[in-house]
Design brief:
0% of the residues lie in helices and 50% in strands. By secondary structure, it is an all-beta fold. The chain is globular, with a radius of gyration of 13 Å. The chain starts with a strand and ends with a strand.
């Protein structure tokens, strides 16, 4: 399984950014997918997840109403639309397969951890 996140960059507070995650080596359409992030000096934390169908979604409270997770099961790409960005959203963002069932948010419930993409939000 290979997951390659991209789309990060340096933006100002209030701006928007869209992350992408290209998946290979996995039957993408049959797996739930998720996004995590890790800020400097902090633990990796759950951001959002999307059901294999693309219909059901789960968000961390910190991003609910600002971030939108979506997927393209034909192109095998996972997306994270990030709006109204805040400096506290600064982190490396990772995508992962949700191995252990829907609505789980633990680090052990997701994998593998490929190379993330850095998002920096300036105030």
């Amino acid at each position: 399984v290979q997951l390659q996140a991209s789309g990060g960059g340096l933006v100002q507070a209030g701006d928007s950014l869209r992350l992408s995650c290209a998946a290979s080596g996995v039957t993408f359409s049959r797996n739930h997918m998720g996004w995590f992030r890790q800020a400097p000096g902090k633990e990796r934390e759950f951001v959002a997840a999307i059901h294999q169908s693309g219909v059901r979604k789960d968000y961390a409270d910190s991003v609910k109403g600002r971030f939108i997770v979506s997927r393209d099961n034909v192109k095998n790409i996972l997306y994270l639309q990030m709006n109204s960005l805040k400096p506290e959203d600064t982190a490396v963002y990772y995508c992962a397969v949700q191995w252990k069932g829907w609505m789980r948010r633990g680090l052990d419930d997701f994998g593998p951890w490929g190379q993330g993409t850095l998002v920096t939000v300036s105030s």
